[in-house]
Amino acid sequence: MSRCSSLLPDEAVFANFRRQCLSTDSWLKKYDSSGMQVWIEVPAKKDKYSVGTRCKMTIKDVSAATMYDVLHDGQYRKEWDSNMMESYDIARLSANADVGYYSWRCPIIKGRDVVTLRSWQVKDDEYVIVNFSVKHPKHPPCSNFVRAVSILTGYLIKSTGPSSCTFIYLSQADPKGSIPKVVVNTATQILAPKVMKGVHQAAVKYSAWKQAHSPHQKPWLYPEQNTLPVMDPAELSIQRADSLENVDEVTQEDGQENEDSS
């Protein structure tokens, strides 16, 4: 595999992601109610700060294809994602891969941002989206946010009927900063199902919204519609969590308050 293409997910990456989404090994179920299950990953990864979370939701009123469209549609995300502060696609890397930026607000703690390489695959009745953090030469960490790291994050959507599907979200990430892992783990177990439910609610309304907003524009399905600039994947490199500084958020907040009061 050439250096140019080595960063792009291959079939092995998608297969590994599917396996982790469906595996019962190394995952401890923490919640199971009303069609929603939540697991945490055990034992812990070698990276003591990383957190592994998996959620599965049974959806009875939205098709797998619509759920997939909602996750891709950046314009629609502005309508439903209340945690998002800024999100944009930077460049396309191939017919089924791009690089993009996303920042979000966090309760109590400093906001986070990521630059990720995202890739997707559709096979029969199954839809997969995966992403991981990369370094982009023109989008380095900034002082306004703590740069988080996605080790492997994504969605597996499988059709169970014309208007039903199973919806799985898996995240292995390091939020960086100075928040104890046990706090992040607990918060993630609470927040992840809320995010899943939010995506589901958005999906219920998507078809009506899309009819009024470029209904035939879906570059994630039709690559010829993609107008992003093309970027050589060789210009990117994987963002390792240990290469980013762990910002002491408490000290930083205190310092900001002192500056504001001076």
UniProtKB/TrEMBL annotation:
Residues 27-208 form the START domain. InterPro entries: STARD10_START, START-like_dom_sf, START_lipid-bd_dom, START_lipid_transfer. One of its GO terms (molecular function) is lipid binding. Residues 241-262 are annotated as: Disordered. It comes from the Eukaryota. Pfam families: START (PF01852). This is START domain-containing protein 10.
